[in-house]
Inverse folding.
């Protein structure tokens, strides 16, 4: 999982980084070593908010991956994309539940551990996800799924979940 560069320092391999991006865990550990710092705003209660974000994000991540495999007949990876547009489960509320879940887990860990570096990392990950969605994912999905994707895109928000589930016609 790690490789050594010329100066002898270890670094994470690109393949491992791709997997960690999806899980939100490995990079978080690499940044924090999961050491608790003083809580944000000196309030221990903030740690509970972090736990809630992690607990909310993990099942959403698992459910979304399962839907990609079982309903979409593919993976979230661009090299093995889904054959079917997935518009069930959390996808009825938000178009990008995997990215939302990963960022929730990262920010939850940042709040739990009281670590601003991890909070910054979560923000940078969201920006990277946003750029990827705008420049690659949405154009590819529009081309591949046409009117079905346009209907989905018109009714389901990209990042902030709807309050009620979208139902296809």
């Amino acid at each position: 999982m790690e490789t050594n560069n010329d100066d002898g320092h270890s670094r994470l391999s690109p393949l491992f980084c791709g997997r960690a991006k999806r899980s939100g865990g490995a990079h978080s550990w690499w940044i924090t070593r999961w050491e608790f710092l003083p809580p944000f705003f000196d309030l221990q209660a903030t740690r509970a908010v972090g736990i809630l974000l992690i607990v909310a994000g993990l099942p959403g991540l698992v459910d979304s991956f399962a839907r990609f495999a079982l309903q979409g007949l593919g993976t979230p990876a661009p090299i093995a994309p889904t054959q079917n547009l997935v518009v069930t489960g959390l996808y009825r509320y938000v178009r990008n539940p995997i990215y939302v879940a990963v960022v929730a887990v990262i920010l939850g860990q940042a709040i739990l551990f009281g670590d601003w570096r991890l909070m910054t990392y979560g923000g940078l990950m969201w920006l990277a996800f946003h750029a990827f969605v705008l420049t690659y994912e949405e154009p590819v999905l529009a081309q591949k799924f046409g009117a079905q994707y346009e209907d989905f895109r018109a009714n389901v928000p990209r990042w902030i979940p709807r309050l009620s589930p979208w139902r296809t016609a």
